[in-house]
Specification:
about 170 residues; five-stranded antiparallel sheet; three-stranded antiparallel sheet; binds nickel (II) ion
């Protein structure tokens, strides 16, 4: 956080099937894996293009989250399917060590191209919808601290462990 590329509006990818995009996807994947992240957006590795990827498979950082298949979205568009929003704690590889309670639309549709140029269209809810909204915010130059509505639920992960555990046990109950 603080690097100007993270605040830019990312450009649309014009040619999906290119060496540049293949290399970008490899670099994003390696970074996401190395940092044990759920998702990553191209601006986070210094490339202001509309590309995100995410995957949730028993990630120790998100023990309450359902698995999400590995997905690459190029030039994604999100449409909320209702006004309903839910809150949960989020972190970000570009804002290390911090967590905050962030409201997101509960149900969304997203459309994008996959790396072969085919159209992906999905309707998703809850954690999957949250991950997509977080990653696509990066393409608009928005970071999760910008969406904090309750400053008392914004802080260092190390200081908020109990708060987060308590919040999530209430969510399940
Ligand atoms: Ni992020």
């Amino acid at each position: 956080m603080g690097h100007p590329i993270l605040r830019q509006v990312a450009k649309e990818v014009e040619q999906v099937d290119s060496l540049q995009i293949k290399q970008l996807l490899t670099d994003m994947f390696d970074t996401m894996q190395a940092l044990n992240g759920v998702g990553i957006a191209a601006p986070q590795i210094g490339v202001p293009l509309q590309v995100v990827m995410f995957e949730v498979a028993d990630n120790p950082r998100y023990p309450h989250a359902k698995a999400i298949p590995f997905t690459v979205l190029i030039n994604p568009r999100i449409t909320p399917l209702s006004e309903e929003r839910t809150e949960d704690f989020e972190g970000c590889l570009s804002v290390p060590g911090l967590r905050a309670l962030i409201p997101r639309y509960r149900h969304i549709r997203y459309q994008a191209l996959d790396p072969s140029g085919a159209i992906i269209e999905r309707e998703v809810s809850d954690f999957h919808a949250r991950v997509v909204q977080h990653e696509c915010d990066h393409l608009k130059g928005i970071l999760f601290p910008d969406r904090v509505e309750k400053p008392e639920f914004f802080g260092f992960e190390s200081e908020m462990c109990e708060t987060i555990i308590e919040f999530r046990s209430k969510m399940k109950g």
